[in-house]
Amino acid sequence: MNAVQTALASPSAPVLLASVPGVATTNRTPAMEPFDVERIRADFPILQLQIDGKPLVYLDNAASSQMPQQVIDRLVRYQTTQHANINRAVHYLSETATAEYEAARRKLQRFINAPEEREVIFTSGTTDAINLVMHGYGRKFIKAGDEIILTTLEHHSNIVPWQMLAEETGAVIRVVPINDAGELLIDEYENLFNMRTKLVGVMHVSNALGSINPLKQMIAFAHAHGVRVLVDGAQAVPHLQVDVQDLDCDFYAFSGHKLCGPTGIGVLYGKAALLEKMQPFKGGGDMILSVTFEKTIYNTIPHKFEAGTPPIAAAIGLGAAVDYLSAIGMDAIATHELDLLNYATAQMTRMPGVCIIGTAKNKAAVLSFTIDGVHPHDVGTLLNQEGVALRTGHHCAQPVMRRFKVPATARASFAFYNTLAEVDALIAGIRSVQKVFA
Amino acid sequence: MANYKALYQEVILDHNRKPRNYGTLDHPSHHAVGRNPLCGDHISVELNLDRECIACIAFQGESCAICKASASMMTSAVKGKTRADAEILIQEFLAMSTGKLNLDSPNHIGRLAVFAGVCDLPTRVKCAILPWHTLHAAFNSVANVSTEAEKDPMHAPIGNA
């Protein structure tokens, strides 16, 4: 069943009364077992692009992934036949849009195996979700002298909000170091705990290095000390089957646009008991039960945290995206991506003058590297000439760059629609960069 | 689309491999550090002004080939020039990097024209112009220069460029 059919079959979705002539929907289902990468690629119109006469080799998926036709069609269908504001009017379109928006919430709930749909809050992305926890939980429960544990691996989006809180409240930030492979030092992590520790902020998968952190162990240890754990899952949900109940994390944040969905949408999962105790992050419409100038009563979760008109189309598009990914299967996706990573790693390891940054035993499909004598920016510009799109820079993780004493790296990040031939194109591109700088 | 490889000409690669005037001065009269927060690159420019004339100049830092070659060729170009002449060259280089300089009209660009192609690479313009902004900041003794931050002297108008 494809995304469109799933949405139509959803028991809560009203029968579609309106129809627009000329709006086609895609009937293709994503490839099922065995994993058929060429059939999957056919779902992604952008992958057919030529860059300067060369086929696009898109290896910047950790920054943002591409969107399959099924999700594009879902957005078109919503805008052409279902759009109105939600939670307001009694007319057909408003009821339809509300039902589809809430159906998307249930899809996301199932995707991460959250116990309850009200524990899934739509945000504008991971950064917004982390800021929500900082304002809603941090400002209420973290006081002067309290300690927040972060890791060297964190993206700036899981550092800066906590620094802002620390500056405001006098809380203290402690940092878990990493080894030369880019793995967290778990003994050091455990040694950081004391009576003042209030929160751990840790990423599931490192965006700069690909390291997969031992979350279950870290979360169990934190909980044994009565400490809450916020997980930045932006780089994990596109690659791994994530189960928030199995992890037992208190908060889990991720973005839609790294998950074949639209930009401007993301999710914060939070345990209901915690979300209920938290203060709202943004005030406005939809997040209230009643307003007088004397007192406002806030709405229940998740609405308490969704002030104003949300990105309705983006949420519904993200629902279609997780349907698409689920139909392929996250395990199949992980297996294919690991093949790509292992193949690329083996080739790059053999190349003189190329150094892989981040060699954790447990890694997702992210490959950061440097080329001797060539700045990553020059690598990026020259690879672009070959049609290869990758990210160069500090990846919003300057502490990681400092730890490895490099100003920046080039980063190839793979998605399930990438091929071994594209890895070959990357390797050939690196050789041509080395030739220019020889 | 621009031919990116054309930018990586031998003269730029040569200045990247063997940067001229690379290092620091003992007692600079003017200095500034330029940063590009987008990529973390930074370079320092130090100089000694002798009655408005650039007696000596040096740069160092961590940067890509485009930035390093630009800094190297900049120091070679302005050494011995007056501050006023250097400021004119800064304006012309900035104009060229953003595609606003007519290279056929009279100018002082000379060998620096190898950077003309950078105007087709919006993400690399900042690499090429960072040394020039930093030189301008050094003249005005602005301690830190950034291409991003607020109150950024890089965003302050330089001549008409």
SSE succession of chain B: HHEEEHHHE
- SS content category of chain A: alpha/beta
Look up the CATH topology of the largest domain in chain A: Aspartate Aminotransferase, domain 2
**Gyration radius of chain B, to the nearest Å?**
14 Å
How many individual helices of chain A?
A: 15
- Please report the total strand number of chain A as a whole number: 17
Uncertain segments of chain B are: none
Number of helices of chain B: 5
Q: What structural category do the secondary elements of chain B indicate?
A: alpha+beta
- What Rg of chain A do the Cα atoms give? 22 Å
Query: For the residues shown, what is the average pLDDT of chain B?
Result: 86
Q: Please give the CATH class of chain B.
A: Alpha Beta
Give the strand content of chain B: 15-25%
Chain pair with largest interface:
A-B, 20 and 21 residues
Report on this structure.
The complex is a heterodimer of chains A (438) and B (161). Chain A is of the alpha/beta class and 438 residues long. Chain A has 2 domains: 98-326, Aspartate Aminotransferase, domain 2 (3-Layer(aba) Sandwich), CATH 3.40.640.10; 330-436, Aspartate Aminotransferase, domain 1, CATH 3.90.1150.10. Chain A contains 15 helices and 17 strands. In chain A, the strands form 5 sheets. Chain A has a 7-stranded mixed β-sheet, with helices on both faces. In chain A, strand 1 (50-51) and strand 2 form a beta hairpin. In chain A, helix 3 runs antiparallel to helix 11 (312-328). The radius of gyration of chain A is 22 Å and the shape is globular. Chain A starts with a helix and ends with a helix. Chain B is 37% helix and 19% strand. Chain B has 5 helices and 4 strands. Chain B has helices at residues 4-7, 10-17, 65-78, 83-97, 122-139, and strands spanning 30-36, 41-50, 53-62, 144-146. A 4-stranded mixed β-sheet of chain B has the order 3-2-1-4, with helices on one face. Chain B is globular and about 40 Å long. The mean pLDDT of chain B is 86. The chains are: A alpha/beta (438), B alpha+beta (161). Chain A binds chain B through residues 51-52, 374-378, 381-382, 384-385, 392-394, 398, 401, 407-408, 436-437, and chain B through 1, 3-5, 7-8, 13, 16, 38-41, 62-66, 68, 121, 124, 127.
